Amino acid sequence: MSRSSLAHSRALWNRTHLDLRSDEILAQILDRGSMDDWRSLYELARDDAGLRTRILRIVERVPLPRFWLAALAGLDEPVDFDRALPDYGPEI
After folding, report:
1. What is the largest CA-CA distance in the chain?
2. Cα 41 from chain centroid?
3. Which of 13, 29, 60, 65 is most buried when burial is the number of CB atoms within 10 A of its CB?
4. Cα–Cα distance measured from residue 67 to residue 21, given in angstroms and rounded to the nearest whole number
5. How confident is the model at residue 24, as a pLDDT?
6. What is residue 6's three-state secondary structure?
7. Which SS3 state, helix, strand or coil, does residue 21 take?
8. What is the pLDDT of residue 89?
9. What is the rounded CA–CA span in Å between residue 41 and residue 6?
């Protein structure tokens, strides 16, 4: 898994190219990416503190799956699990 595999993600259906500097594209992958996309993003975030910080900032503002908080905490990113987050879908 790598940046090049992310470039072919179905989550980027409305994009001409992958630009992880774009928070909008990053949020699109976080929300609509496949498991392989998420693994690739996790691998990239492992060695990129700036990317981890941006992912956390997006997760705190955009309704996204909560598992990203656990993933970031697993990479030693300080995460406030008690912080109120936007609702992600209907409650089951």
Report:
1. 37
2. 7
3. 29
4. 22
5. 93
6. helix
7. coil
8. 66
9. 8
- Is the dihedral angle over the CA atoms 49, 4, 57, 76 positive or is it negative? negative
pLDDT for 83 equals: 85
Q: Which amino acid is at 4?
A: S
Contact criterion met (CB below 8 Å) for 87 and 64: no
**By C-alpha distance, which of 79, 73, 7, 12 is closest to 45?**
73
**What does 29-87 look like in DSSP terms, one character per residue?**
HHHH--HHHHHHHHHHHHT-HHHHHHHHHHHHHS---THHHHHHHHTT----TTS----
Contacts of 11-14 with CB under 8 Å at 24 or more apart are: 11/37
